Amino acid sequence: MPRPSRRIPTPRAMIVAPQPEAVEAGAAVLAAGGNAIDATLACAFTQGVVDPMMCGLGGLGVLTIHDPKTGTQVVLDGLSPCPAGAHAEMWSNLFERECTDGYGFVLTGAPNEVGHASVTVPSILRAFADAHAAFGRMPWSSLFDGAIACARDGWMVRPHVHAMFVSDERAYGRVNIAEKLGHTPDGARLYLRPDGTPKRPGDRVVNPDLAATLATIARDGADAFYTGEIARRIAADMAAHGGLITEADLAAIRCRRVEPLRVPFRGRTLVLPPPPAGGIFVAEVLRILANFDLPAMGHNSAAMVAVLAEAMKIAGLDKDRHVGDPDFVDIPVERLLSEAYAADCAARIKAGEKTSLARVGAEPKGTTTISCVDADGLVVSVTHTLGMPSGVIPPGLGFMLNGAMNWYDPRPGRATSIAPGKRRFSSMSPLIVMEGDAPVATLGAPGGAWIGVALSQVLVNLLDFGMGIQEAVMAPRVSATSETLDLSLRVPRATEAALTAQGYKVKRVPTTYAFAGVHGIAMWDGVLEGAADPQRDGYAAGVA
Questions:
Q1: Residues with active-site annotation
Q2: SUPFAM superfamilies, from UniProt (predicted)?
Q3: pLDDT averaged per 10 residues in sequence order, the chain, 544 residues
Q4: Domains detected in the chain
Q5: Any idea what DSSP says for residue 513?
């Protein structure tokens, strides 16, 4: 019998994100006539309500945008800096050791990851406001309806939210998120059960304080947060509890509009955010892989996985050595992404050389992403985060502040040492794939250091193996962010055995889907196809 014909109208616009309530808010804005920026922001504000340990008004992030009116791409950098009162020696006497997975530093009393001193200056809202001013269509105030409704009426704890609540960070030397939930009275009231344990799947969270904060920002704009009453309340809470952020720090926040990296791969161009965002890692991995015929090796064969692993390790080592805030560090971007350097790296891999990457740990997975395309061809990809949640909810405001000071080395004289205004490297890498002058795909992912690992493999699946975007996202992935090569559960056992025989230290993770949560949209031939990573809770919504 013939295949049944498609009965769903072909979408002219689409949005995808890891949270169903957020996707719904963004799709509603698209249906009401909003464009991709409007929908993305509505989705992002809702994410801050329903994924409060992952992102929110107290966080940081990056947007990559394709503007069909000009045919150009731009990156809006909303990565947060150290407060002006920070200095390199402030915690040097508290240093104990690095976290065992390489992400962060163990300090006596953990002031760098929990509490008021752990907070970098929140910057994402300024980036969102600038994106709306440059590209938005609907009124700013209309973008908050979904978020305010979720905060006011309540939302249900989902499996992934609960997994974040109860994740074990003590094993690595960090403070468990469950302990941070009750750090302030507001946090305990919102996210803990009466017995003091984190709320579980199916429990509801009602947050009228956040609804009021969002309503203020909807009415008065981002200035309410950076120079108005919200800023004064944040600064007063900081001053009362030994925090570093002042009203002057908040007022000084500016979003940077920067040129993206443009990197050729398989006849397309990858548009990626530059340092201190994580596009350089993805770019270097793909530049190296361009020297190999991966399909001839077989998908996820031992030969292919070994090449992937070595490319990831080389890029990871270069990231550790060279990449930071370009205002403070000279980064050899042109050399790292040059054809000659990629060819040299590939030659080393072909000669059987194994790169040593003794300690490059995975960042915490407290991040989220959105991809959106509208009927006019505006493409937006955003990744935003709290880094690590600080546990700090300023009284009566309803949102948690980031704990991103744990990203900085407390030992003076190092590339990532603390300094006023310094931004730390972030793996966030929302990207767009161009075919000539036309965008053909956009991707983003939460997942810390796994972001670049996962995006690189999904791009290989799309552009080398010709997979559809959902298939490309769902295909089994591997990770090489240390001396151990991690394999997701569905990588064949024969591949594992062959890699072990080659001398690799291999670890199989016990989860079906692993290594960041890639979400994206493909748009070849004008047909929109969305992909949501099954390890998260979201979906892709098309709007006709």
A1: 367
A2: N-terminal nucleophile aminohydrolases (Ntn hydrolases)
A3: 68 97 98 98 98 96 98 97 96 85 79 95 98 98 98 97 88 85 96 97 98 98 98 98 97 97 98 97 98 98 97 93 90 96 98 78 67 98 94 98 92 88 93 97 91 97 98 96 90 96 94 93 96 95 96
A4: 259-363+428-530 (1.10.246.130)
A5: S
